[in-house]
Amino acid sequence: DTGVSQNPRHKITKRGQNVTFRCDPISEHNRLYWYRQTLGQGPEFLTYFQNEAQLEKSRLLSDRFSAERPKGSFSTLEIQRTEQGDSAMYLCASSLVGTRPDTQYFGPGTRLTVL
Amino acid sequence: QKEVEQNSGPLSVPEGAIASLNCTYSDRGSQSFFWYRQYSGKSPELIMSIYSNGDKEDGRFTAQLNKASQYVSLLIRDSQPSDSATYLCASRQGSQGNLIFGKGTKLSVKP
After folding, report:
1. What digits encode the pLDDT tens for the residues A14-46?
2. A102, A103, A108, A110 alpha-carbon torsion, rounded to 10°
């Protein structure tokens, strides 16, 4: 257990529905990352925050995806109008900027299945 | 397109042997490199990070970096069945920012 928690751990939804995932990072960590991983692939970067500011978004992040970190603590990732191609493991990681190494610790992930 | 390449395996080694995992990266600007272990259905767990050319040892694990050849490797000595997992290589530009992962190499250690 790295101290990063994610909820829910599993989500099954029907195509076209909206889903929201939550990530709680390690308490003193100021950076929070979202990745997506499909079967047989490595994690792919989606977006990251430093405190409450969203600093970078991947080209993979279509306009159906939105992420927030309103108070610089937990973060939410929302997918609107889900598609079957959104089925994946969504991973959250956190780190403390200024430490060396700036190690990213991953949460257990949320597995999304879109029917 | 910044890429990290790994042989997907599976790599099978007998218990007690040395497992050698390799990774190449395309972005010469990459400065830091990481090896994560991922058990089936679980999230990645950091094993080693390396920033400078040469070797870095931690217990049974040795990471090797050759920036001129854009090559990173991980050696696991005295391999155990519990080491059976997928090993993900990742690179990053600078000391901060997102990681770029390879597809991972599946390692199987046979008793």
Report:
1. 999 999 999 999 998 999 999 999 999 999 999
2. 40
